[in-house]
Amino acid sequence: MKKTKLRKSTVNNLITYAIVALFYIVVTVMIQTGNASRHMQSLLVPICVNVVLAVSLNLVIGFLGELSLGHAAFMSVGAYTGGLLSIYLKNAFPQIPVAVRFPISILAGGILAAIFGALVCVVVLRLKGDYLAIVTLAFGEILRSIVINLEFTGGASGLKGVPQNASFTYGIILVFITLFVIQNLAKSKHGRAIQALRDNTIAATSVGVNATRYKLLVFTIAAFFAGMAGVLYSHNYSILTAGTFDYNYSIEILVMVVLGGIGSVRGSVIAGALIAILPEMLRSLQDYRMLIYAIVLIVMMLFTSNEQLKLMVAKYSPVAAVKKAFAAKKVRKEEN
Amino acid sequence: MSFLSNFISGLSLGSIYALIALGYTMVYGIAKMLNFAHGDVIMVGAFTVIVVVNSLGLPGVVGILASVLICVLMGVTIERIAYKPLRSSPPLSVLITAIGVSYFLQSLALLIFGSTQKSFPKVFNVAPVHLGELTIKGESIETLAVTTIIMVGLTLFINKTKMGKAMRAVSEDREAAELMGISVNRTITVTFAIGSALAAVAGLFFGATYGFIGPYSGAMPGIKAFVAAVFGGIGSIPGAMLGGILLGIIENLAKAYISTELSDAIVFGVLVLVLLVKPTGLLGKKINEKV
């Protein structure tokens, strides 16, 4: 019998799907058997929101190699669009069932956020690195002060009355769609082109990779998913305030990406979930949460970017030791 | 007349931005990194003055000296611990580390001083000047006077001294400077020390102008000063001064004539516009990328 061998990247992607599916099954069983506390259940939607945000930001940071500090702003575009649309549809067309209305809102929020993402990208096309990061941050702040000053968004007091339609199932479906699109994009021809741009822009453009097009593509897709996560977020709480989506929130998403490992989709999934659960588990450490985030950021960057520290990690890390043992075994097998 | 008084308080706010922007632009020019935590050094400087003057009851001059000293020590320590190990890493890693440092300083201040803003002591007592109908606030006068002296001094330091020459050499070509016997590490340390000292002075005037300081007080002026540095052309010292002053005037006039709430949006809108038209800023040099 001939064994069909899957590609390594496919196996990797399947593992990520499996983790999410397993999580969903375990939690559903726990809820059915009454083992999940209300408190735990209230964390499920934020987990999904975080995972979608982290995975989509990882597309920009890990695959395109640019830093966007305006991810929370795209999220807020989605949150407000979806929230306002749901309120309107609920009042104007009460006969539309939630199962139709909510996905329409999610899609609308995503699309408007994607349009914003594309607009921001057109503006920052000529910039890169630090300049790009600071301009995305500026965009976030501009958007926030505009939202606070608008009438129909509820201004500084916030938007009330968004129907609370978000549920864990919707969240998990959104996570699956995000993973499917982003993992397949990363694996495709386009994904390789994007990563080539990250590794060496000049070399990539000289072999015909269209830098403008791919930058635009990445920003639009990342904003699209951030917007959808925003809609999920707005339908989970009874009040939506613009102050939530300041640049601290963008940095929190950045912490998830860095903690999970820049460029690792599975890492973002796990770190996103962890950051949602952590503050609840460490209630006594609530005051120290930000301090811990800051130290995590610094230490992670030092240990992954400094050559000497990287070597030290490789020497003492158990993961690396296991990998080395496997590699040695493989070599021995091939020799036999 | 109210236009003139708005203009002067804009000039005073702008010179605070210029002081902070100088720190950004010098570090960017020499260490080729964006020190995101620079804004929070202002906050630390201002809190030092509050602790020394309000809690310990020492005179204002001691507070100023202590604030400059602590900021310099902190700036150099941050550089040594967080940035130096990443000297040869991609800019993205350094930027994320700097964001981490900024977050660290903010949350540390939050733990120590709490989230309520503390009132800033009156360090100077310059009486307001009345010129006909026009009144110039004492804070504006002292800010303008001190920043002018500092800017002249800094320009002389950069252009006339040996250390200044070394700084210019390192910012132009680090490897070549090293080959000429310039200690790059020492130059970068001195740059961080000067930048942090300027931030401490800026923190002093910021506190004197606004009256209250909280853990997040440094973030906004920090980001705006960065905008000013980019506006004037990052890496350029006259650019940072010009950008800072222009930005302060724009912000104050926008506050007075358009809308207080939208003034931040207008300031950032200016940044976006400038970068669209001239991505290297007003006085920035265009550098062609070499393969």
Describe this entry's structure for a reader.
The complex is a heterodimer of chains A (336) and B (291). Chain A folds into 2 domains: 13-305, ABC transporter involved in vitamin B12 uptake, BtuC; 311-336. Helices cover 76% and strands 1% of the residues of chain A. Chain A has 15 helices and 2 strands. The longest helix of chain A has 27 residues, at 98-124. Chain A is globular and about 75 Å long. Chain B has one domain (12-216). In chain B, the strands form 2 sheets. A two-stranded antiparallel ribbon of chain B has the order 1-4. In chain B, strands 2-3 form a two-stranded antiparallel ribbon. In chain B, strand 2 (129-131) and strand 3 form a beta hairpin. In chain B, 51% of the residues are buried. The chains are: A mainly alpha (336), B mainly alpha (291). The A-B interface holds A 61, 65-67, 123-124, 126-127, 129-131, 133-135, 137-139, 141-142, 145-146, 148-149, 202, 251, 254, 258, 287-288, 290-291, 293-298, 301-302, 304-309 and B 28, 33-34, 82, 85-86, 88-97, 99-101, 103-104, 106-108, 110-111, 223, 226-227, 230, 259, 261-262, 264-265, 268-269, 271-272, 275-276, 279, 289, 291.
In short:
The complex is a heterodimer of chains A (336) and B (291). Chain A has 15 helices and two strands.
SSE arrangement of chain A, N to C: HHHHHHEHHHHEHHHHH
CATH fold annotation of the largest domain in chain A = ABC transporter involved in vitamin B12 uptake, BtuC
* Shape label of chain B: globular
Q: From the structure provided, what is the oligomeric state, counting identical versus distinct chains? A: heterodimer
Sheet having the most strands of chain B: 2 strands, antiparallel
C-alpha Rg of chain A (nearest Å): 21 Å
Overall mean pLDDT of chain B stands at 87
Report how far the terminal alpha carbons of chain A are from each other.
Answer: 22 Å
Point out poorly predicted stretches of chain A: none
Give start-end ranges of low-pLDDT stretches of chain B.
Answer: none
What is the helix content of chain B?
Answer: over 70%
Number of spatially distinct domains of chain A: 2
Spatial shape of chain A:
globular
Gross CATH architecture of the largest domain in chain A: Orthogonal Bundle
Tally of distinct domains of chain B: 1
Spatial separation of the terminal alpha carbons of chain B: 56 Å
Count of helix runs of chain A: 15
What is the level 1 CATH name of the largest domain in chain A? Mainly Alpha
Question: What percent of residues of chain A are in strands?
Answer: under 5%
> Which class do the helix and strand fractions of chain A yield?
mainly alpha
Q: Please, what is the average pLDDT of chain A? A: 86
